[in-house]
Design a protein that fits this description.
Layout lengths: L4 H20 L4 H19 L7 H26 L3 H31 L3
Protein name: Heterocyst frequency control protein PatD
InterPro entries: PatD-like
Organism: Nostoc punctiforme (strain ATCC 29133 / PCC 73102)
Amino acid sequence: MSLNPEKYLALVTLLEQLRSDATTTQIAAPELRVRVASLQQFFGQQIVPLADENWRVQSYQTEMSKQLRLLAIDVMFLQGARQASTAQTRLQTISDRLTTLIQYCNAILQPEAEGEK
């Protein structure tokens, strides 16, 4: 199958919204866990089937899969945080991981803008 920019753009939108909610509002850890699970489901159903013959895209998809699994673990650690400073550190880690995922999506989309095949 070929690269489908709309699916990646939808994923970027979901990632940006989650990052915004996690950093600007007091989102509860259980809700964050549900949203991360939803992200993983979207990735599995909408992005993984877009497997491309392009090794570069496959590499990014592999890294994105790994980062999503680590994100779920970060949320578990957030749920276990007992001090506000620890929770803040965990939220920063989650935000950083979401930023990394957004950068991966943008890197996959970049060749499309440059006309690279």
